[in-house]
Amino acid sequence: MPVSRRTLLTASGAIAAGAATLTAAACGSGGEMDPEEPVDLDVPDSALTGSIGLLTPDFVGDARAPLDEEIIAPFTERTGVSVSVDQVDWNKLNEKISTGIAGGIIADVIMTGVGWTQPFAEKGIFAEIPADFIESLGFDESVLVSTRFEGKYYSLPQALDLRFLCTHPDLLAARGITEGPASLDELAAMALELTGDGVVGLDYLSGSAGSARQAFVFLLYAFGGRMFSEDGLNPMLHEEPGRLALQWMLDRISEGSIDYDLQAAEGQPSPFQQRKAAISLVSTGNWVTWTQMTPELCEEGAVDLHLMPSGAGGDPVMFQGGTFLSLSSLSKNKDAAGAFMKHMLDPEILGIANAATGKVPPTPDIPPNEQIESSLLTQFGLQNLPYAGATEGGSAAYMEVRTNLDGIVETCLTGRASVQQTLDDMKALCDGAISRI
Q: What is the pTM of this model?
């Protein structure tokens, strides 16, 4: 049975009490958190005690040492608060949190993805973050859109994964193309012109920058649409912009300028890296792979970068994924949890963390960092943050929607469902999920 916000708020005292001896509900200063009250972020370090738990899908492999030694250690030294880390794969994170909701075993500080805030805030799992603190950070509104639920803040961006278009300028120049596309019609014409001689014009679906679901959402925003209404209670992805987004991809597949079957073997360079695609959807996270496999692409002038042009006569857009920080409403050490969140958002710590994970800080206002500054993809993303409005989510029902939306989009792109049937299936999926909130 789904857990509603009302149910959880009624039971939160009993759940938290039962979890008092567990690491996830660490003991210390501040006492149990009231989910209806924003956390106090002005508690002095001298008043902090005890321990807290951090749940994160990031900082894997070589990135774990910087988390322990350069992020957590200074915080512990300054405050005396110890931090235990529970690292879980992205594909198991939702299950981990959901299981914790049922058992009251929730970390004090939780890192999740774009679109996750509203579902867990609705359940009363995420604590409210004071608006005045968030406004003091000076973050662009584009990176704060996904942090709110019912007009209040329940998360903050810690690391971004931004997506846009990348071209091989020499392949374009060979066809007489010297400028990037100013509209989706121009992008379609350009992709067709570049297709041939073993090269696909546009690699949009190979997966190097996300899933079919995310590819659809990106175009949905480019055509002026959005996934849900402002209050998250009505789906909008099935409306006209959604139809245009699906049809645009289908038309490119029909022309051959997008090849649905274009893939790279696991562990091999992407089609764009192999010069099998003239234009590609890329992610800022692709830079690490480029430096390891195709360092020639990392040279100045080797590639050109472009925002996704509008299909509706508006501004271009950039897709925004990433990792967001939230505080557990079941925390037994809310003051220390809030202090650690503030620590994670310190400009110097943001630079260290994002350099370690290969992601993008949510603001360009960080101290000089050679690793971040050397990534042309990261720098392009930071320069264009105001355009990063294409995001997943927007409804408390989204965790259920995202699980099934990929299959619906793929069924359409492989010709097993019409555009209209796909739109109807999207609406039915969203309506059903919203009815169960």
A: 0.90
